[in-house]
């Protein structure tokens, strides 16, 4: 094939790719476009960038940083008058706060930060399910508390606090959530929860946490997240975890159990993970905000939208994405 014919073929492939790349939907491993090909979908080019999440935290490589002010979670203790709605969106269980969003302060983050939502990730068994791993070990579940800045700055910086969950003893702090799961059996269903202190969903000790700069773990994989992963994990019983596995997603007329809702581990590249265990005394000289300059500057460079991210791909990648979109567009309704 001469160069002109090859160029023409590539042009045809590129036009077809542009025409159909928005028709397929992202997913995990049961339905939809799997994580390895999320970048092929319209608006998701950042999913193959170099500041992605989740990551494996290697404890021997973390950098200790204790000279920051501890978290102030007092507003999370006073949520018994805050309306909470739990819904099934086909990918996860999400709890929203439609009336008042509780705040957190300090902890080295910009303040105040509003709790936008919290959601869960879990596996088909308790050997896996979490998104982040510690020294290669994956937990049974992971819950993300998604916080957003309250100001009107040029860039929306977000912070996610993560709690890792292992299969073990019954956890009564999660009883209200687990007991209401049968009322959101499939995608699109939702229920109002009885109010409870959100702080109860955290580990008993929140004194130590890992931190790094990363992204959303779902499309569009925007890189504007400061991640905080508590060092202490919590337990839930197999009965409680199994309640999540009974939920169904409905991408089409065929239902499937929502399981294995975790993205594969992403490379750290040049990023560092810090471990902070601030002492709750004499911290007048501690930093009010952690030194997140590189992370914040990165967000400013990217801008508020990932449209500033270069969406150029190689010819071979365009060919792969063409096949991926064609396949998942035409097989999404198969049982």
User: How many beta-strand elements?
Assistant: 18
Tell me the span between the first and last alpha carbons.
40 Å
- In CATH, the homologous superfamily goes by the name Alpha carbonic anhydrase
- Strand-pairing-aware structural class: alpha+beta
What is the percentage of strand-forming residues? 15-25%
Please give the share of residues in helix: 10-25%
Shape: globular
Number of domains: 1
Give me the CATH architecture, please. Answer: Roll
From the 3D structure, determine the CATH topology.
Carbonic Anhydrase II
Word description of this protein:
Helices cover 18% and strands 23% of the residues. It has 335 residues and is an alpha+beta fold. The protein has a single domain, classed as Carbonic Anhydrase II (Roll), CATH 3.10.200.10. Strand 10 and strand 11 form a beta hairpin. The two termini are 40 Å apart. Its EC number is 4.2.1.1. Belongs to the alpha-carbonic anhydrase family. Keywords: Lyase, Metal-binding, Secreted, Signal, Zinc. It is found in: Secreted.
